[in-house]
Specification:
By secondary structure, the chain is α+β, with helices and mostly antiparallel strands. Helices cover 15% and strands 24% of the residues. It has helices at residues 2-16, 103-113, 182-191, 258-262, and strands at 29-32, 39-40, 48-55, 59-66, 77-83, 120-121, 126-128, 131-139, 144-153, 168-178, 193-194.
Length: 279
């Protein structure tokens, strides 16, 4: 009896004592290397300085933090959510809600990303390789120009007709830059690359690819130059041909009559100017 009481007391004391282990952080967010970022800026674009990843039962979320050169408080970053089959690191009750692009939801997001800045949504239709996106601009602290852009990528034409396509990508960009222009900030959204996917074939957020344009490669097809929004690195239209400089017409003595009245004193409007011969 006495030995049993002593053994029970030792067990109780052992259970109540600390074992010296470090505390467990109560979060599902972890830091991953920049090479595992789900969204990559174009080469030569903003530098990735860190990636924070969180796994949900139905989605994988990343905060791809970008280098910031601005006076406006806050961190430039891509926020991306991949809805799809995630390998378990959490319980089935940890569900990521799919926020649709409503005016109220976007206004709340912009206020959280850029508090106190008057962001004006643009009415222009813009799109990148993944489809259309929207954006808003506002002036931050100092000479900063700030952009908040949003995009929802979900296929419209099904690839898997019987099983159906699953998968949605949600992309947000918060970026402030001192001395930036609207074109330079939009360039980031135009040229980013999605760098991840889920393995099941039914995960297809892009839909069926569009057919090749019939004008592509055809002789006599139209030649379209990129818009100026792509910046100096894009192709530009060839410079216009130089306009010939009109030479003063040599004055000749009139021969009299109608011939004298028919000699023009200046080039006629609408006719090409022929340069005078060089001596």
């Amino acid at each position: 009896m006495r030995r049993g009481v002593v053994a029970l007391g030792c067990l109780l004391l052992a259970g109540g004592c600390t074992t010296g282990r470090p505390p467990i952080v109560a979060t599902l967010a972890i830091e991953v290397p920049p090479v595992e970022a789900l969204v990559l800026p174009e080469p030569g674009g903003p530098r990735i300085i860190g990636v924070i990843e969180a796994r949900y039962a139905n989605a994988l979320q990343q905060e791809v933090m970008l280098a910031t050169e601005a006076a406006t408080p806050g961190q430039n970053a891509f926020s991306v959510v991949f809805f799809g089959p995630v390998e378990g690191r959490t319980g089935p009750e940890n569900i990521k809600s799919d926020t649709f692009l409503t005016d109220y939801a976007l206004a709340e997001e912009m206020e959280q990303a850029l508090p106190g800045i008057d962001l004006r949504p643009s009415t222009y239709f813009v799109q990148n390789r993944y489809g259309p996106f929207g954006y808003a601009l506002g002036h931050g602290a100092g000479h900063d120009l700030c952009l908040y852009a949003w995009q929802r990528i979900q296929g419209q034409a099904r690839v898997n007709v019987l099983a159906g396509d699953r998968g949605v990508l949600s992309v947000r960009l918060r970026f402030c830059q001192s001395g930036a222009t609207e074109a330079s900030l939009l360039r980031i959204m135009y040229r980013y690359t999605i760098n991840g996917y889920f393995l099941p074939r039914s995960w297809q957020p892009y839909g069926r690819p569009l057919p090749v344009a019939p004008e592509l490669g055809r002789i006599g097809g139209p030649v379209v130059y990129p818009a100026p929004v792509f910046g100096a690195a894009g192709a530009t239209a060839p410079p216009p041909a130089p306009t010939p400089i009109a030479q003063p017409a040599a004055r000749t003595a009139p021969t009299g009559g109608e011939n004298a009245a028919s000699v023009p004193s200046a080039p006629l409007e609408g006719y090409p100017v022929v340069p005078a011969p060089q001596p």
